[in-house]
Structures are given as C-alpha cells and as structure tokens.
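Bench notes, bay 3.
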Amino acid sequence: MPTAQTSLIEKFFDFLYENQEGYICIATSDAKMPKETFKQAFFKWPIQHAEMIQFVEASALRRNVWFGVNLLDRPERKKQFCLPTNLVWADLDECHPSKVEPTPSITIESSPNRFQAIWRLNEIHPPEIVENFSKRIAYKYHTYGADPSGWDLTQLLRIPFTMNFKYEEAPEVVVTEALDDKLGVELFQTLPETETDTDIDIAELPNLEELPTVEAILGKHTLALGRAGFFVTYEADLDMKDDWSRVMWKLINICLESNLTPEETFAVMLPAKCNKYARDGRPDSFLWRDIKKAGAAQNRLAGITSGLVLGTPSMPLTLPNIYDGRSNSETFIDEYRQWGTLATDAIPEYHEIAAAILLSAVLAENIKLGTSYGEVVPNLWALILGDSTLTRKTTAMRMAMDMLHELDDEAILATDGSAEGLLTGLSNRPGRVSIYFRDEVAGFFRSINKKDYLAGMPDLLTQLYDVPPTISRILRKETIRISKPVFIFFGGGIKDRVYQEVSEEYILSGFLPRFLVVTGDADVTRIRTTGPPTTAIERERKRIATLLADIKEQYSRRATMVIAGQTIDVPAKTDAFLTTEAWEHYGAIEMKMAQAASESPYSALALPTFERLSRSLLKLAVLLCAVREEPKANTIQVEKTDVIAASRFIQNWGKHTVDLVMNSGTSIVQRQIQRILGTIRKNPGVNRSRVMQWYHLSKREADEIFNTLEDRGEIRILRKGRGQQLWAEE
C-alpha cells in the first residue's frame, strides 16, 4: 500500500483515539469465504501503533478489514471488556449523512452511497452510555436506511483507505468529511429513547450452573446490603395486594448499587420471594431483562454523577448514651474552646478536638497507664472535617499547631509523605511525641488508594498508634529501627472528599476507628468580619500557652536508656492509676458500647469503631486528670469525675465518627442525593421545581436523581398537571 495511504490510516486512528489506552480489534476476512476466513487480531493502543498499521496495510491487499470502535481492556471483543470512551457510532448504510443530526465528526463512505459515521464527544463516558446514544441514532434514522443493528459495543466498522472486496470493483473506503469539533453529550440526550424486548439477548442469560450460591453472594456483600436495608425487604412475605413489581425493582437496584454484578444480582433475585416472574411461571429472561435495564439506568446516572449511588442506611447506627450529665466541671478543653471561639468563627467542636490533640502532644510521652491488656500511652488521633473554607478547619488546626510549635518546635514531624520518610523522621525521636500533621487528608487517602508504594501505609500507621517497643523496616540500603514512637495523627479536609476516599476496609482494619472525628457544616450566619487582635484575646492565648508550658514542665522528667549500645536521654514516665470507682464507671461505658455495637445491624463496622472510641475515652480521661492535678511520687490518680468529663466529649464527638463510618466510600454526589432525600422528608409534598432550584439541578440531573429515589422506593412522585410533588416513603 502506498506510503501516503498508510499515513492517512495513521491519522484516522490518531483522530479517534488520541491519548486513550486499550486494545483495538482488527478483523479481516476473505470476500469469497467471509465466515470461514474471519479472523481477529488485537493491538495495544498506542504502544503497538506501528505494528497495527503494518498489519492493516498487509491485510488490506487482499482482504476486507474492519476495526472495533471501542477500545478493550483485554484482547477479547466482548461487551464486558469495553472501556469508557468518547465515541458514538452508526452504520448509516443507505442513510445519507446530511440527514443526520447531530452532524458526524467523521463520515466514511464504505461503498458507493453507503455510509458509516462516528461522533467525538468532549468527555469520556461509560460504554453503556455511548452504546445507548448509538442505539438512539440507529433507531431514529432506520426509516432513512440506517442499519438498526449497528449500535452494539462490539460493532465493527470498515477502516478508511482500504478496499471493500465485497464488490467486484473493490471500491476504496474513503473519508468524506472530518470535523475537529467535539460534541457535548446534551446533543444526544435529546434523541428519542428506544426500549424493546430485543434489547436483552437471551443468549446472554447467565449459566445457572456457573453462578455462586446465594449464601456466598450475600455473605460477600453483607455490609453494603445491610446498610441499604436489603434484608428486611428481601425476606418479607408478599400477598397479591402488594406491589410486587415495585418491591422487586427496588431490590434489584439495591443489589446493583451495592456493587453486586448483574450475574450475582440474577442469582440472588431468582429465589427471591418478590420474583413475580417465578410466581407467574414466566421465563427467567424477563428477570434478566429487568436487571440489565436497571444497570443501564444506573449507568446513565453514573454519567452525570461520577459514581453509582449506594443505598442510604435504612437503620442508622447510633452511639449509646454514655454521658449521664452529672459532671459539669470545666476542663482545659472547655477553656481552650472559649478562647478559640473568641479568636475565630471556627466551629467550636474544632477547638475542642484541637485542645485534646494539644494535651496529647504535651503529655503523652511522659505518662502511661497500666491495664489488663498492657500499657496504654495517651496519644490521640483526630480528624477535623468540614464542607468548605467557611468552617475554618485549617484555621482551628493551625492555631493549635502554632501554640505547640512554641512549646516544642520539633514535635511536628517533617516527612515526604512516603512510609520510609515517616519512619526516618520517627527513628530520630525515640520515645518522643511526633505529630503527623496533614491539613488536606483526602489527598493523602487518595494517594494510599492509588499508589502502590503507599499501599502499606494504613497498616504502618496503625502499628505506630499502639506505641510498639520497636519497629524495624528493611530498605534497599539500610534498616530503620524505631523505639517506642509516641505517634499522633492530626488531619483535616473536605468532608465529602474524605468520605469518598475511605472504604470499609479502612474501618475493618482498625485504622479509621483510631481517629476522633469532628465534622461541621458551613453556616454563613456564624461568619465574623476580620478585625485587629484584641487585648483580651491575646491575654487569654498567653494564659493558655503558659498553662501548657507549666504542665509540660511538671511532667518533663528524663531518664536514660541504652539503644544500639548507646546511652541516650528519653522521657521518664509518670504512672496513672484509676480509682476503683473510675474503673467501674469506665467498665460500664465499655460494656454499653460493646453491647450496642454487637446488637447493631452493622456490627462488623460498629465493633472496631465503638471499641476504639472506648479506648480514646480512657486516654482522654488520663489527660484531663494530668491537667487537673500535679504528679505525686511520679503518679497521678484518675477519678471517676475525669472519666465522666471524658465521656462528655466522646459522646459529642462520637456521632461524627459514626457518620464517617456509615458514609465511607460514598461519593460527593451520593452525599448530595442523600441531602435531597432529607430535604424531601422535611418538606412533604414539595414541588420538584423547588428542589431543582435549591440544589441547582438541570432537568437531566433531576430526572435521574428523582427516578433513582423512586426506584429505590424512598420517594413517591405525584403528578399534577405539568407539576410534580415529591413525598418521602415511610
């Protein structure tokens, strides 16, 4: 083939795929025996770009040559392996491109007066979305001669600048028009939808013998299904008066939203009590069709929301009442909060938890508490989360860290973010407090999730929390050894982004439950204008800083220890003891927390979370005691009142920890959908238009969100004339 034609073929593929990656299917056949000689070859784009062009050039000398429109994640031309794309396609056949709207990005004349068309979108979309658009075009222009079957994801189109050997004269396949502009998705959304029973190919039905058991599937997805209220509905008995279709559709959507595959959903729904098709003796293909339709609807929602919607917990996890309200004595945390609220308009709870971190940073290296399960060091971890800048997350955190810097300018650990960088910093501070301070923790979690070299970071940090005697890590050039690290993690970030990045694995592993969490929502009415510093604020800050310095000095005793043959100074420990009453009160709280967790429908998540909240309460009680009294003979005595005071803060902060646990893994838009549902619950019968105005929703976004909530059975929509009223289902 001439070099000029080779160059044109290269430009054609570059035009379509640009910097995307995946496998391209190149199919060939001999015109005389097309079925018998049909072959497929796969090339990795763009790595095998040159080999592919060479293969096309050689094949096109005597054979028909096609390409698969969609890139694949493996060398196999099947729907399930198609990657997200920005291409829409149609085999227009006898339909002239001038009749088609929107105008194709590239028009190919595959033979005289027969055409193919491809449209380039300005964004990448899930394969099901673009397949749906391709189908709409095929059906809309079918009466003009378009092939109604040329819309599926595995569609093959002829490659331009090759020959069509279907005809004796072997005409050249040519590009008749190519436009640089990329199109917005809204141009395709206005095309009429098509829904026919032929959408679901019976041959696609899963093989029942190859499906896992229902018990295995439900066991695998228990947490997600339980949070979505699946089991109550799944196990309910129905009579003929019930709306079987609504119940079945709700369960199908819950399964798919809880990350069950269509095949797993099929296996679970076949024996379901609400399977109306089994009740009526109709084929299983009807159930499979509904599952595929539900999946397509959810993928349309995914196209505008960046993620599928998980079910909203039907039974919220709640923290038991552990504070009896009998102690109202003021603590250091209360004093710090009062100063903080004078100095800034940050949410008061932010100052509370910052004060707790300050106490831990000043005291943790010098105090230990003996328990039945070993020695406890009162190091705390905390997360401050908020909606936006208006919550003043960073302001509250910086105020505390600035004060700590005046007391110990080496306590805030400098690190490059890697596990090795962190360990290196800790190895230089044996037995000393070291704070890992991150004011945008969502990015940190995202890095852990996506970067292989950070994969073990949560496990490492979890180890450090428990103040092990030693940790060793073998690197390529050295071995790092850390002795008794008193490690504190203090992080902040945008609430929705953090919720999106953390998964249930963070909870089950015990990493996330080790954090005390405070969240806040932006409130414009709380904003104060910026002004000059006042004498009262400066005086109170100085008093608190002096108090912390005095406390630090009271507990800053030194001792010597031998490490690697060298004698060094390390902090000496003050022993904390609980009175009998204090132990009994703490034990009652601990049992109440454990019982509430074990009886919760989310016990797998609640047990590690509530157990660690109990441990944090004990640590906080020790810190409050250390502020309240000076050590005597290197000991302090923790009273019942200290435990009660600590329980007051844990009761208040604990609800934020629970909220984080119950929303782990949810995206920003998932959270918005939950807020919209909450708005409908608070405003029964609210007009659809009002909700759209409040949340700035487009018509398409509103359609997908309200339809999803209706499919879940969480709202009902009453249509009156041209308007709609929204009601939450009880």
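Next record in the batch:
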Amino acid sequence: MKRRRAARRSRELPIPVKLVFGLAVALVVLTSAELIARQMNVARAYQPDRIGGWHMLPAQDRATIRSHEGHTFRLSTNEDGLRTTLQRSRTPGKARVA
C-alpha cells in the first residue's frame, strides 16, 4: 500500500508545470474563440466611438448631440460641464439631490 502511494506521488506534476499547462490551454481556447468570432463577423463589444461617450464639456450652449438611435437633441451645460443650473460646489447647510 505504501508503495502505491509513493508511486502516485512521484507521478504528480510540479506546480510550475501545471501552471504552464493551464496557461497553454487557456491560450488555445481564447485564441480559437477569437478566430471563430472573427470568421463569424461578430462585432467588437467595445466600440469607443459609440459606448461611453459622455464627457464633461464646459460652457456648452445648446450644442447639437446625435443619439445612437439617429435623432439629434440640444444640450446645454454650465461652466463646470454639468447639465444643471447647480454649481459643482455645494451650498453650506443645504442638502442637494441631483
């Protein structure tokens, strides 16, 4: 019985070897998923020109903004770049909900 346990322990791979094998498998899986997605013409999920386009632009006076749906709307901001009449600094003693 002791001999079987000793033989089993000697066949186990060291941790660095297991880590390298795991990284190799992950690389193969992710690369093949990327290649399959490119063959199927799947669009990228992150498109910086369409997603996350909110920026603080100070002193906009009825600027024309085009939405994702294709229509345009007007946007005005104060000198802090906020779409509100409130200033960025708070008035002491007053609670503010925005």
